[in-house]
Amino acid sequence: QVQLAESGGGLVQPGGALRLSCAASGAIVSINDRGWYRQAPGKQRELVASITNGGGTTYINSVKGRFTISRDNAKNTVYLQMNSLTAEDSAVYYCNVVGLQIGGRDFERFDAWGQGTQVTVSS
Fold this sequence. Notes:
By secondary structure, the protein is mostly beta strands. It is built from no helices and 11 strands. The chain is elongated.
């Protein structure tokens, strides 16, 4: 079973920066897609940024130019560098990783989620 371990959340002042990390472990054969989602109180979970195996990235409009998603394939880790944070960025952030793992007799697809890390932007 693939597991994700998130770290890097916390309390930061407006205009500050945080870097989130998400390390995947388990019987991973390959990783195809990685994404960071967030969910604020009373709101739906939204995809903030994603990165494909080829390095292609997507961002929601509200974070473009401020957030950067990256990956370290050797460490099976995905990062989210968040700069110029505002109160509207406050949320629980979740990483999501999709790929292939060693199954019972063959490879099988996995779709794993991190436990979530709180990001609070406040003065």
